[in-house]
Amino acid sequence: DAKTTQPNSMESNEEEPVHLPCNHSTISGTDYIHWYRQLPSQGPEYVIHGLTSNVNNRMASLAIAEDRKSSTLILHRATLRDAAVYYCITKTSYDKVIFGPGTSLSVIP
Amino acid sequence: NAGVTQTPKFQVLKTGQSMTLQCAQDMNHNSMYWYRQDPGMGLRLIYYSASEGTTDKGEVPNGYNVSRLNKREFSLRLESAAPSQTSVYFCASSDYQSGDEKLFFGSGTQLSVL
Known about the structure:
Helices cover 0% and strands 46% of the residues of chain A. Chain A contains no helices and nine strands. Chain A has strands spanning 9-13, 18-23, 32-38, 45-50, 55-56, 61-64, 70-75, 84-91, 103-108. Chain A has a five-stranded mixed beta sheet with strand order 1-9-8-3-4, with no helix packed on it. Chain A starts with 8 loop residues before the first strand and ends with a strand. Chain B is mostly beta strands. In chain B, the strands form two sheets. In chain B, strands 2, 4, 5, 6, 9, 10 and 11 form a seven-stranded mixed beta sheet that branches. Chain B has a four-stranded antiparallel beta sheet with strand order 1-3-8-7, with no helix packed on it. Classes of the chains: A mainly beta, B mainly beta. The interface between A and B is medium-sized, with 28 and 28 residues.
């Protein structure tokens, strides 16, 4: 079973920030938090990952709660091209990588 | 840089037929994975290979076999296809099977079993 829970769907207006939440209450100390997204008819692509500290890259920011039981993927200005299914997973060494159903993000022009 | 390449992109089988889905990566990655995605659903892990010469079952291994042919290639075989195996199949790879390593995915194989 997936070790994370996410809302099934979210909506955002174009050019506004989007905060996608993820709960991972059973996370262990060695689990990294990864986010991937899947555009329509494509394979998933990596977005961002982190362990304890907040992370930024050109695509997004990842805010990790102090107790690490939840995290938030932040898209600073949503565009129509950001409409996708976003997956939050936890990943550790020598263990299966299990995906949940993810959050389907719709971006409204 | 091709990344993860899957062949074929589309396939239609009749119930009971067999086939092999091919996956190759050119990133010198040690770990490879096979997932299936049913319509409107998330990804489910079928099998994975932490390193060359090793394979392990994932969440839904029944009806499938895998071969880690060499470091580059990881194939998925359906010995006797069933309609329940109609799905999109994704292959992925990562440098190592560690928490800090990103997964890289192929573009998928859409399989229909009639």
